[in-house]
Write a structure and sequence with these properties.
The complex is a heterodimer of chains A (about 475) and B (about 525). Chain A has about 475 residues and is an alpha/beta fold. Chain A is built from 15 helices and 29 strands. In chain A, a hairpin with a 5-residue loop joins strand 9 and strand 10. The chains are: A alpha/beta (about 475), B alpha/beta (about 525).
């Protein structure tokens, strides 16, 4: 076997708690399919027959094939991990290390893309790379996000990605947060690759092809806990670090390992490097760079490659804005303006535009739904007007409610004639505050129309607490 | 038959040229129908007729040249033409005619003896479809990779690939008409697009190898062979004999789809073909009672030995021979990047010979840069020119060392495109041309031109970016424009002075002898 797929579905979705407090992130409906369906579909289309899914117990119960609506016969091997404290993706990978026998393809459950996967894997194969990853151009989200004031700030920290002249070899990677005074690039990198392009508008799709020896390296070094945050930058840096003089016999290898303490990635990788491969490279008249006196790849054993998607669909659904955009894109991708789920009851004189309506929903007469996302089991009474909003599952929207750019939580009720607009954003930042804020139109007040109220109302429907007054 | 003879004789006597031709045609038709035997009869008849018609009946004598011919129509055409010549020269030149008759008789004899060899004499050309010869039932079958413009051959190939579960690679771009019988693929559309990613049908090492071939990462005859054998080693290591099957038969069948796949990625080279033949032979020679582990070990060691003997040790031997030909003060010209020639030069430098090198390079591959790098890194004095400057630089050159992709059975050298030009110009300047080639690259194919069997590389390689502008970017939109990116060409043996192989230094025309000796050994 060549590659094993590992799907990371244990993340909590900490950047969109409003949606994930009730529904787990892998099961969030996007275009009426659970979020985890998209990476699984990608793997299936390409020809994978088995996937290892790492997730929590709750999600595991829901991951039955009919729930997932998978067409093919892909075998899902679900591994549970305890979510105690912060278990990073690298820790999760270490957890399943026994099952991994070949090179591994690591995916995140929130990736929606139509990339031709062979482009990434071909880089990995052809250059015998230690790591190959996928990146895509960052899309600006233009739609107004419910619960946020105005345009989304560039609050996300930028990634600085340096690639060589061909655009495939990854030379440098750092997050803005790690760069205190400015960008520092080692001279050895500049000597070997005098022409480097640094790009900032890229989204890391969290799709990595890793060699088997990298997984073994992870097992030895338990202090690496996140693939994206620690392992990848380490590998990128390792390409240019001074190579250890590779000892020829095994005794020296063990001695040097003990001396170093930490197992050297190169030694692990190079033992596999064979005489014939070296001979082939020696006889081949190919070089990946020209102009200096070094051999192909500058003699380096660790190589990292990146495939940058210039066009095509690639979203990581880890924020609310991305979620909404993904829904929009999926319905556009299907070709329809809107997607209506199964077992929906939609009465006459309703207008549903550019929206997604989840399964088993009920929509009564004279309802206007525009630009919105309704999850499963939502009931919308007559005369409602829903615009630019996200209504989570099993919510009930009362008669004649007017909802604009709001986010209605799960199992909430909007009273009849309720009106909510969003202006301020205040809810998103602090978790406590989200749970503490009150949706004014709910039962406690009897005059939902008062303009003062509707102007200042908060968007989030509180989950458990209701603050009186 | 005697009656027939008599009637024909009478016919000849009584008719003039026009009728005579008709009679001759009848004769020829009759001759064809009755086969070989008539030849001798025809000859006897001819002699009798000549004795009878020794008077100045030039027409009859001209016609008689026709009679003795149960020859293939192509030669018949030749005869017709010669007859026409004769008839136009009405004034009797008896000696000339007699000579012509003698010649005709000799040709008839030769044709009678060489009938079996005629099918071999017909040039194995892809384009020319030899007129179906009733006397030659054996027509040589053309390899499919030079029949891309024949839809039947393409369909056959597609069926074979479908059976082996290998995807068909689609052709790309407009092909220049002279080369439309060859495959032309695009590097941007690799075969891996069409196979599942954790490849199950094809062994992962073979997929990787095919990708490296098609992207040019493994390039050069020796490198490709070594990589191929390495991949085969991996395949053999991972192989498990299915129940009720024998390793010696099943493994060969397993290798067939892999070879088809590699062929689709990039056409196999002659050296690879020989290596594959060797491996298949070794596999089928495994005794049936041999245990799987032992058999695998034996195969792996066979492959190791092959590489050691045919490539590594051969290189050392060739280098030892070649160094005798390098003297101090030499200026050596090399073309492109040949691993063997680089090895020879590096060895010679290590043995303290003083020489300098001129590296000639050509677009679009520009492989000379790599050769230049390796030689300069060693410490050799080098000059770098493009092939357009070769006639300018040749007066300074004392020897030319060329590498070869394959050596053909008729002594032609198949090498990177441009080699034949270098050899030609060197010949014009009387500079000795030495070709270095291991014996495992000798192949039994015969080729006299570079059209019939060649390889077309990606035409987009010819696009060049200068100052941010990509020239020829929209070449596909111009209907009359075709881009041709040839990979190989053949150099005739007249231009090559010596071939240095691991068996010694031989002239180019001794290649068939080596092949014969090799076959006897095996």
């Amino acid at each position: 076997m060549e590659l094993q797929a590992v799907l990371m579905a244990a993340g909590g979705g900490s950047r969109m708690m409003e949606l994930t407090y009730n529904t787990h992130k892998p099961l969030l409906p996007v275009g009426n399919k659970p979020l985890i369906w998209y990476p699984l579909n990608l793997l299936e289309r390409v020809g994978f027959e088995e996937v290892i899914i790492i997730t929590t117990k709750d999600v595991q119960k829901m991951l039955t094939p009919d729930r997932l609506k998978l067409d093919g016969k892909m075998k899902l091997d679900v591994v549970c991990i305890q979510l105690e404290g912060e278990m990073g993706t690298a820790d999760a990978l270490r957890h399943v290390q026994q099952k991994i026998k070949t090179d591994v393809l690591v995916l995140s459950c929130d990736l929606i893309t139509d990339v031709a996967l062979h482009e990434v894997v071909d880089l990995f194969r052809a250059h015998n790379a230690s790591m190959a990853m996928l990146m895509s151009k960052l899309h600006e989200f233009t739609e107004t996000v419910p619960g946020q004031k105005g345009k989304k700030k560039a609050g996300e920290q930028r990634d600085f990605v340096g690639v060589d002249a061909t655009g495939q070899r990854l030379l440098f990677m750092a997050n803005e947060a790690d760069l205190e005074d400015g960008l520092t690039i080692r001279k050895s990198i500049m000597c070997k690759h005098p022409s480097m392009r640094i790009r900032t508008g890229l989204l890391d799709a969290h799709l990595y092809c890793l060699k088997r020896c990298v997984v073994d390296f992870l097992v030895e070094n338990k202090n690496i806990s996140s693939i994206r945050g620690e392992l990848i930058p380490y590998l990128v840096r390792k390409q240019f670090s001074k190579s250890v003089n590779l000892p020829n016999n095994k005794d020296e290898v063990e001695m040097s390992q003990k001396m170093e303490g930490q197992t050297n990635l190169e030694i692990l990788g190079s033992c596999k490097d064979e005489e014939l491969l070296r001979l082939t490279q020696e006889r081949s008249c190919w070089n990946d760079h020209h102009g200096d006196m070094s051999e192909a790849y500058h003699g380096g054993k660790v190589r990292c490659y990146v495939h940058i998607m210039e066009d095509g669909v690639c979203y990581r659904v880890n924020t609310l804005a991305a979620y909404i955009e993904a829904n929009r894109m999926v319905s556009a991708g299907v070709g329809a303006d809107s997607i209506i789920g199964a077992s929906c009851q939609i009465s006459d004189k309703t207008s549903i535009k550019r929206s997604t309506v989840g399964a088993s929903s009920t929509v009564r007469e004279k309802v206007k739904i525009t630009n919105s996302i309704l999850m499963n089991g939502v009931t919308v009474e007559e005369g409602c007007n829903i615009q630019g909003s996200v209504i989570c599952s099993n919510a009930v929207i009362g008669r004649n409610a007017d909802i604009k750019y709001c986010l209605v939580g799960s199992s909430q009720r909007i009273e009849p004639d309720g009106e909510c607009l969003t202006v301020t954003q205040n809810a998103g930042i602090h978790l406590h505050y989200v749970y503490g804020c009150l949706f004014i139109c709910v039962k406690t007040h009897s005059t939902p129309h008062s303009s003062a109220v509707s102007r200042v109302c908060c968007v989030h429907v509180c989950v458990r607490q209701r603050v009186a007054g | 038959m005697a009656d027939a003879d008599e009637t024909s004789k009478q016919a000849e006597r009584n008719t003039n040229v026009g009728d005579g031709i008709a009679v001759k045609k009848q004769d020829i038709a009759r001759a064809k129908n009755e086969g070989k035997e008539l030849t001798k009869d025809e000859k006897q008849r001819l002699r009798k007729e000549k004795k009878q018609q020794k008077k100045n009946k030039k027409d009859d004598k001209g016609e008689s040249e026709h009679e003795n011919v149960p020859l293939p129509p192509s030669q018949a055409v030749v005869q017709c033409q010669s007859q026409k010549v004769c008839t136009s020269e009405k004034p009797a030149k008896s000696k000339a005619e007699q000579r012509a008759e003698r010649r005709a008789r000799q040709e008839a004899d030769r044709a009678a003896k060489g009938k079996k060899g005629e099918s071999a004499q017909q040039p194995p050309s892809g384009k020319s479809k030899a007129p179906p010869n009733e006397l030659q039932p054996v027509v040589k079958r053309l390899p499919e990779h030079v029949q891309v413009d024949d839809p039947a051959a393409v369909r056959k190939l597609a069926k074979k690939l479908e059976r082996q579960q290998i995807p068909v690679r689609s052709e790309y771009g407009y092909k220049v008409s002279l080369f439309s019988h060859l495959h032309q693929y695009s590097r941007k559309a690799p075969l891996t697009q069409q196979i599942s990613i954790p490849s199950t049908v094809i062994h992962p090492y073979i997929v990787r190898l095919g990708l490296q071939y098609s992207q040019g990462i493994v390039a050069g005859s020796n490198a490709r062979s070594i990589a191929l054998l390495h991949a085969f080693q991996k395949v053999i290591q991972d192989y498990k004999t299915p129940p009720n099957e024998e390793l010696s038969r099943d493994l060969v069948n397993k290798l067939k789809p892999y070879i088809s796949y590699l062929n689709q990625c990039r056409p196999l080279s002659a050296s690879m073909g020989n290596a594959i033949k060797y491996v298949k032979k070794e596999i089928s020679n495994i005794p049936c009672l041999c245990k799987e582990e032992e058999a695998k070990k034996q195969l792996l060691s066979c492959i190791d030995n092959y590489i050691k003997e045919k490539i590594t040790l051969a290189a050392t031997t060739i280098s030892a021979y070649a160094i005798e030909k390098i003297s101090n003060g030499d200026v050596i010209l090399v073309y492109g990047c040949s691993s063997l020639v680089n090895h020879i030069l590096c060895d010679a430098f290590d043995k303290k010979r003083k020489f300098s090198v001129i590296v000639v390079d050509s677009r679009p591959r520009l492989e000379g840069r790599e050769a230049l790098r390796r030689l300069v890194k060693k410490g050799i004095c080098c000059t770098y020119v493009l092939i357009s400057a070769v006639s300018y630089i040749l007066p300074e050159v004392s020897k030319v060392f060329l590498g070869a992709h394959a050596l053909l059975a008729n002594g032609y050298v198949m090498s990177r495109v441009g080699t034949s030009q270098i050899a030609l110009v060197a010949k014009a300047y009387n500079v000795p041309v030495l070709v270095c080639c291991e014996t495992y690259k000798f192949c039994e194919r015969v080729q006299t031109d570079s059209f019939v069997s060649n390889e077309l590389d990606d035409p987009d390689d010819l696009m060049v970016t200068r100052k941010g502008k990509i020239h020829l970017e929209n070449w596909q939109d111009i209907r009359q424009l075709g881009l041709l990116n040839l990979v190989y060409d053949v150099t005739p043996p007249d231009f090559v002075d010596l071939v240095i192989t691991d068996l010694g230094m031989i002239p180019c025309t001794s290649v068939p002898v080596v092949l014969r000796v090799k076959n006897v050994d095996q």
